[in-house]
Amino acid sequence: MDKHRKATYHLWTFAMSKLISSFGSSVYGFGMSLYILNVTGSATGFAINLLCNTLPRAILAPFAGTLADRKSKKKIVLISQGGASVIVLSLLGFSFIQELYVSAIYTTTALLSICSTFTSITLTSSITQLFNQEKLQKAMAFQQASISLSTIGGPIVGGALFGLFSMKVFLLIHISSYIIAILLEATMNFTLYRKQPFSKPSPFRQSLLEGLRYVKSNENLLRLFCTGLVVNFFAVSLVVGLPFIAVEKLRIQSAHFGIIEGTFAAGMLVTSIYFSIRKSFRSPLLLTKWGIVVASFIMVMTTLPLFIPLSYGGNVSFYMVIGLIYGITLTFVNTPLGVLLQNVIEDEVKGRVFGILEMMAQGLSPLGMIIYGLALDTIGPGWSIIPSSFCMTAFTLLLLNQKRLKYIPTSYSSIS
Q1: Which end of the chain is less packed: N or C, by CB atoms within 10 Å?
Q2: How far apart are alpha carbons 260 and 233 in whole angstroms?
Q3: Any stretches that span the bilayer, and where are they (predicted)?
């Protein structure tokens, strides 16, 4: 099989692998989130589970990226996916012995987060070695489309299953998705477009420091990474706040809330399909900047039903529209930026750079989850989300200011 045909095979296999594994994770995550909310009845309990998912990623991301640059990417992906399967299988076995404790779910979430950190960063750093330049933007768009499809189906299936079946069904779906993803990824050649053999890696600590120096020496990369740090902190207010508003405050049923989350993914899906057929982006950083500003405005809008009472159907319809627009907006932020970074970061340091990006993007999220979990329970969603939205806009405009952006060319070399 020649390289072109193999790259085409990679395109579909990669998309299917992401679709299946993301679908399993989406069903599992949605079901567990509702389970925790029902058991604890508090936004703090929900936030703790998010914290268990985010904190390991923030801590381990640079180490995962360094390992991805030093070892076989294929082996790392398969081993980490296999480890995740064993973890979920263990929780399933525990559920046959006694009813699931919330603490057991928190522990499982943290362990799965560790595995997914190594999987996601390694896969992201492998993209330019799996695909040629012509298929790069399409691969990124297909990846987003696969995740979006699973995010549409996951909450809908999870909402329909919740209350009808035990949590064992959610665990079985999750395990099955991991196994199928492993079988698909095992057939891929992770060095198909490797430009040249990498030089012998430096010692682990030195390799990690080299990645930090690479980012520090590039002002534009550093600005983007700092933007990710503060934006993810303030965006946590919506991640924790929206389920709390919908389920606890407005009493929206789990099945209907699943549909609301599905519309968010539908917006991402439609935009991803558009990106898969359009030409390369000319001003990716400007798209990122104004996309974040629009997302901030949408965050404010999510609190509207708290101040202007609507009927039950009105609340569900309102959040479906909000979810659709928010999904479109985030795709206009993430996809152009992702393609840009894939083009300008050298393959030899991709794992470390994406690991540092993950660390900085997630770095303040754990603190945010604790703060917003407590804030939602004490001062309420309105006073938590609205000020966060204004702060997110202010920091974005400051870090990605027009004076700095106007000196950046519109080509993919712009960030160098």
Answers
A1: N
A2: 23
A3: 12-37, 43-64, 76-97, 103-124, 145-165, 171-192, 221-245, 257-277, 289-312, 318-341, 353-375, 381-400
